[in-house]
Amino acid sequence: MLEPADGWLAELPEEFTGRQVRAGTVADARALNRPTFVKPPRDKSFPADVYTDGSRLSPALDPATPVLRGAGRPPVRVICPASPWPGRPWPGSTTAGPGRQRRRGRCQAT
To answer: Which residues pair with 100 in a beta bridge?
Structure first.
C-alpha cells in the first residue's frame, strides 16, 4: 500500500490548510519554547495536542520521530445540528453545508 511522505501536509499552500504547518522531528519540537500544536504525521505514537513547550513531549519518544507542527491551536471542527423542522432552517440561519443549517449559539466547535 502506498503512503504519502511524512511532510506532505507541510508542503501544501497555507491557503488550503488555513495555517502554517511545518514538518520536523521530535528533536526539533523539543527545542520549541512557545505553545505549538504537534502531531505524528501517520501513526498515533503520541497524542496530537497543543504542547506549552517542547519539554512537555514524552522523554520516551525517539528524537528522530517525524512530527508535524503548527500554530498553537488544534484544528477546529464545527458541528451544527440540523433544523428540528423538516424542510425549514433555523430562524436567522445560514447554510452550513448541503442540506445542513446553523444558528448562532447552536453550533459547537470541537
So the answer is: 97
30: DSSP letter: H
pLDDT on residue 1? 73
CB atoms within 10 A of CB 54: 18
Answer whether 0.70 is exceeded by the pTM.
no
- The 3-state DSSP class for residue 40 equals coil
Distance of alpha carbon 70 from alpha carbon 49, whole angstroms: 10
- Residue 109: C-alpha distances to residues 19, 52, 88 (Å): 17, 21, 23
The two beta strands, 49-51 and 66-70, are unpaired
Name the nearest CA neighbour of 105 among 69, 78, 72.
78
